[in-house]
């Protein structure tokens, strides 16, 4: 899942990419399993699929919330940078290239999984 936030401000952070990767660890039915146990293995596979779907749903919700908050933070940061540059006559500094900033976030909460990772990338024009 990839979300992108964009701004038209020439001094703005131009994008925020948020990637959520969820691995689906699904148990597989072993061919050597006793035929009487295969229905149980199928039931476990079905529950594993349901749990993976629920985890994907909650990861999507977390991503949307993070995207919203990152957009608010980017707007606040842009206003402060432009105000600071204007006050001190540093508008030329805003035209210098900046390297993107990125970080990985491991969410915590009732739906936390070691298979959920959120990558945030901030790029400045």
UniProtKB/TrEMBL annotation:
This is Uncharacterized protein. It comes from the Eukaryota.
């Amino acid at each position: 899942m990839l979300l992108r936030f964009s701004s038209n401000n020439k001094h703005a952070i131009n994008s925020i990419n948020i990637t959520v990767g969820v691995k689906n660890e699904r148990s597989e039915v072993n061919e050597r399993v006793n035929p009487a146990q295969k229905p149980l293995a199928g039931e476990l596979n079905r529950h594993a699929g349901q749990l993976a779907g629920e985890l994907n749903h909650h990861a999507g919700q977390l991503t949307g919330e993070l995207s919203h908050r990152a957009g608010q933070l980017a707007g606040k940061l842009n206003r402060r940078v432009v105000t600071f540059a204007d006050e001190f006559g540093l508008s030329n500094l805003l035209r210098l290239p900046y390297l993107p900033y990125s970080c990985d976030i491991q969410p915590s909460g009732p739906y936390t999984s070691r298979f959920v990772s959120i990558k945030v990338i901030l790029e400045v024009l």
